[in-house]
Amino acid sequence: MPIPNRRRAGWGLLATVASLLIAGWTFAGRGGGLSGEYREVSGLGALEFKGRRVYVTTVVGTVFAAEYEVDGKRVILKGPGGSQVLTREGDAIQGGLNMKYVRVDRD
């Protein structure tokens, strides 16, 4: 027995909604989509965002990788010793102790 048109339309709507939900989950899992390099204004530090990771260059030249998350204007770096919250304002990211990073490249 053939499926009535109304029932087929319901399955099409369900498939569309499921596709949109999967796309939303994929975007949300990317941590906000930051990318590029940010250099410290008054120092040697840097932040480089690649995919779901950020590569942090400290003022003494040490580099370590960490995961990060974006929550509105907050950028949360998640390292082995804990988390650090930075604030994003346009092409700048600010941290504690007057640290300010500015974006140096464009995608």
Describe this entry's structure for a reader:
Strands 1-2-3-4-5-6-7-8 form an eight-stranded antiparallel barrel. It is globular. Mean pLDDT is 77; it is low at 7-31. A hairpin with a 2-residue loop joins strand 5 (74-79) and strand 6. The chain is of the alpha+beta class. The protein starts with a helix and ends with a strand. The protein contains one helix and eight strands. The chain has one helix at 5-28, and strands spanning 36-40, 46-50, 53-57, 63-71, 74-79, 82-89, 92-94, 100-103.
Entry keywords:
22% helix, 107 residues, 42% strand, globular, alpha+beta, 1 helix, 8 strands
Short description:
22% of the residues lie in helices and 42% in strands. The protein has one helix at 5-28, and strands at 36-40, 46-50, 53-57, 63-71, 74-79, 82-89, 92-94, 100-103.
Number of strands: 8
Main structural class = alpha+beta
Indicate the radius of gyration in whole angstroms.
20 Å
Strand sequence of the main sheet, in spatial order? 1-2-3-4-5-6-7-8
Distance between the termini: 54 Å
Mean pLDDT over the full residue set? 77
Q: In sequence order, what are the helices and strands, one letter per element?
A: HEEEEEEEE
Low-confidence stretches: 7-31
Number of helices: 1
Shape: globular
Helical percentage? 10-25%
Q: Approximately what portion of the residues adopt beta-strand conformation? A: 35-45%
Largest sheet: 8 strands, antiparallel, barrel
Give the oligomeric state of the chains in this entry, treating copies of one chain as homo and distinct chains as hetero. Answer: single chain
